[in-house]
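Extended Data, panel c. Modelled sequence:
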Amino acid sequence: VWFETIEGFFFSSRRRHTRYISVTGVQTCALPISAARSFKQNTIGVLLTGIGDDGVAGFTEIREKSGTTIAQSTDTCVFPNLTHNVIAQGLADMVVDENTLAEEIKAILQ
């Protein structure tokens, strides 16, 4: 599971401790692509509110590697553009609101 922040990214897996990697200046789609190539079907991509279409490239790679993709529902996004682009292209395995996101991830990991 990965989480993107303004300063960098958090990686977490069952076999490794959580670690922080600073990636200033790296395109945001680089992380999900890298995660998909490394973790293949064990990758879970989560796309939350935002602007742009860079989530499409990342989710495409995750799906190609048989990973799982989850997008926040556009109904609950402050900026629905990012998730809308992924959902419209059929790249989201699940579309959930932020209140059920944790439970969905937990169910996938069990």
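The longest strand covers residues 68-72. This feature is highlighted in the accompanying rendering.
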